[in-house]
Design brief:
41% of the residues lie in helices and 28% in strands. The chain is of the alpha+beta class. The chain has a five-stranded mixed sheet with strand order 4-1-3-2-5, with helices on both faces.
Length: 144
């Protein structure tokens, strides 16, 4: 297997609601588990930032399917690179809604890795996005 990590961002449709996020997560967990995909989905400030890990062909097909989803728009591929091991291997897909976390801690983390206090992946490097996602996952685990 060729193990890869794909990072992308997109903008949520203006009418996206909490039940839409739950539906995305339930379907993602089911599909990704069957396909051997792991990763993390972050949502905040009407923006999605997602990491997919798995076989290159499988994550490529998954990304193309996601890009066609009408609940978001303007998907931007940030990075797709080979990796030695998974960083999010225990999650078929975990979602972090940054509004569910301590707002000051989240703002501090976002500011640590970006020029803003709001989630704006288009202003960040792939490594900054990855670092932010790892920090948010740790913060989410601590809060749970």
């Amino acid at each position: 297997m060729n193990l890869y990590r794909l990072i992308y961002s997109s903008y949520a449709k203006s009418d996206l609601e909490y039940h839409d996020l739950k539906a995305i997560m339930q379907k993602s967990e089911k599909n990704n588990q069957a396909e051997g995909i792991t990763g993390l989905l972050c949502y905040g400030d009407s923006i999605f930032l997602q990491i997919l890990e798995g076989d290159r062909t499988v994550i490529s097909k998954t990304y193309h399917r996601i890009a066609l989803d009408t609940r978001h728009h303007t998907p931007e591929l940030i990075e797709c690179i080979p990796i030695e091991s998974r960083l999010f291997g225990v999650w078929s897909m975990k979602a972090v809604n940054i509004s569910d976390l301590n707002s000051q801690q989240v703002r501090n983390l976002i500011l640590k890795y970006s020029p803003s206090t709001t989630l704006q992946p288009h202003t960040m490097t792939a490594q900054q996005c990855l670092n932010l996602m790892q920090a948010l996952a740790a913060l989410y685990d601590k809060a749970a």
